[in-house]
Amino acid sequence: MKKENLEIKIEKIGFAFNIKKATSGNERQDKYAEFDDPETIEAIESSISSLGYEVVQLEADENFIERIKISKPDFVFNLAEGINGECRESHVPAILEMLGIPYSGSGVLSQALTLIKSKKKEILDFYEIPTPSFQLFKSGEQNLHQSLNFPLIVKPNAEGSSIGINAKSVVMNKEDLRKQVNYVLMEYHQYALVEEFCPGREFTLALLGNPPRIMPVVEITFDHLPEDVPKIDGYEAKWLYDTPENPAELKCPAEIPQKLKSKLEDVAKKTFEVLHCVDFARIDVRLDKNDEPNVLDVNALPGLMPNPRSNSRFTIACYAAGMSYQGIISSVMNSAFKRYNLPGK
After folding, report:
1. Exposed/middle/buried for 296, CB within 10 Å: 0-12, 13-18, 19+?
2. In whole angstroms, what is the distance from residue 30 CA to residue 38 CA?
3. Which of 155, 223, 221, 162 is nearest to 190 (CA)?
């Protein structure tokens, strides 16, 4: 049994985040989609403060290191997406590790791998965890591998929050494939991930703790989408058609047979483990043509929007398990405290 490090007292907790802002000039409409809104930031800060800690805000911009040095937190609750580069979600953990400051959530390598889709899928393939067959396109002139079959879906290789996944992302032929690959290359300045499209039902699983407790399964439904929009959890489905005023219907707990539930939980737990996720994560899964679960994506920094009408998948799953919002934040922190052998209040 691990012993608490009684020499360290946790009094001041830094909260690392990136806040949503309005786009300007020639910036993409979805540039700040991953960032958190003021309501979420206020709710997390309030939850940490209510547990008896002093909280200091640490916006993870170009001045993050200076903010850390000035505030000197004992621990950091990390929800920062980062601002530049394909490994941007690993920047805050790297800085904190360099400065010797403990923090919540997955580490440097896991944060980088879970954002870079192709590398993540290579690891899943190695461990024989089902994920759709794929090919990384570095040019629109690249030939499609003969093993891949239409329909295909085209995604930016290193984006979260369904950024770059739209109504044209599902392609049925080589001409549309080339157009969508070129769109990703030019608009997002990164490689395009092309994978076989899974036609079945879509689910997401929230995992909390070490080892992880799996929250009730969430099924993503697409009844709110217009008929001509592909039934995918893309940017439009999440951010344009699903609003607090007109929320999409998410089924939680999902109405599924026990056998399927066990399969989903098993693949989610294995994915969490092989990617070395800790404390909390959300794993997106879709059924293939044989109704077998395939891992679509892994979010090691899942959204924590407090308002149920915002359809934040992780918090909805935790609410369905009977947790309060403060309980979610507390559980993430306490999981991290145990990893570091730190005494919590």
Report:
1. buried
2. 17
3. 155
Q: Is-contact 111 90, C-beta < 8 A? A: yes
User: What was the pLDDT predicted at 248?
Assistant: 76
Coil, strand, or helix at residue 334?
A: helix
Number of domains in the chain: 1
Q: Which residues pair with 136 in a beta bridge?
A: 193
The CA R_g of the chain, rounded to the nearest whole Å, is 20
- Locate tokens 């360099």: which residue? 98
Supply 82's token pair. 């980062």
As beta bridge partners, residue 293 has 287
**Residue 98: which domain range?**
12-105
The whole-angstrom separation of Cα 186 and Cα 132 is 24
Would you state the pLDDT for residue 3? Answer: 46
Query: What's residue 62's pLDDT?
Result: 96
pLDDT at 17: 98
Positions of the chain with pLDDT under 50: 1-4, 6
Report the chain's terminal Cα–Cα distance, integer Å. Answer: 20
The answer to whether residue 28 is domain-embedded is: yes
Rounded CA separation 288/93 (Å): 35
Taking alpha carbons only, the member of 103, 105, 112, 200 closest to residue 151 is 200
Burial class from Cβ neighbours inside 10 Å (0-12, 13-18, 19+) for residue 208 reads: buried
255 located within any domain: no
Q: For residue 56, what is the domain's CATH number?
A: 3.40.50.20
- Residue 196 inside a domain? The answer is no
| Residue 45 forms part of a structural domain | yes
**pTM passes above 0.70:** yes
Alpha carbons 308 and 328: distance in angstroms, whole number: 14
Q: What is the pLDDT of residue 26?
A: 84
Q: Residue 7 carries which DSSP code?
A: T
Strand partners, 283: 205, 298
